[in-house]
Amino acid sequence: MDGGPKSIANCRGASVIGSLIQLTPQTQRRIAFGLQVILGGIFVYAGISKLLDPLRFSASILGYQLIPVGLVRPIVYGMPWIEIGLGSLFFVGKYPRFSAGGIAILLAIFTLMLAYALSQGWIIDCGCFGKPRPVDGSKIVENLIMVLIALRFYLNPALMVPMPEWRSLVEGKA
């Protein structure tokens, strides 16, 4: 590794984590790449699933009892595209601060809505992936983990692996 600005070893905190669990900079970069692909893919998949079943998504939104009825339609038809856009940018490593920040903000909003609904004792459908899925506290934990991952990329954009560098990373040349 050349130690340039794209090196994960130069990211704040990366050397501390690496020294605690003894990961090479290349391994750390591969882990970051895996998280980038997974989190970006989750957002793309979530957006597509909502586009494919807008009625179910609108029922999920209404179940939270937090969104005025007049805003449900714009959310149903706008949110999937926002998720697909942010997820795609994150996935391919473009505009890392924008995509990671947007994902973190959306996840934080979703998590606050979930926490509020659960605190009221409501049994609600997540609305995450188009299939009915009642939520519990584990969904909040899952979302918070994803928020932390997105924030890590936001705070350290050098963690993001741009698409042109994927091949060399996978082949062990990066």
Short description:
By secondary structure, the protein is an all-alpha fold. The chain has helices spanning 14-21, 25-52, 54-63, 69-92, 96-119, 137-155, 166-170. The protein contains seven helices and no strands.
How would you spell out the order of helices and strands?
HHHHHHH
User: Looking at the structure, what is the overall shape?
Assistant: elongated
- Put simply, the count of helices is 7
Structural class: mainly alpha
What does this structure look like?
- It contains seven helices and no strands.
- The protein has 174 residues and is mainly α.
- The chain has one domain.
- It is elongated, with a radius of gyration of 18 Å.
- The N terminus is likely disordered.
List keywords for this structure.
single chain; 7 helices; disordered N terminus; mainly alpha; 174 residues
Layout of SSEs?
Elements: H1 14-21, H2 25-52, H3 54-63, H4 69-92, H5 96-119, H6 137-155, H7 166-170
Helix pairs in contact: 2-4, 3-4, 4-5, 5-6
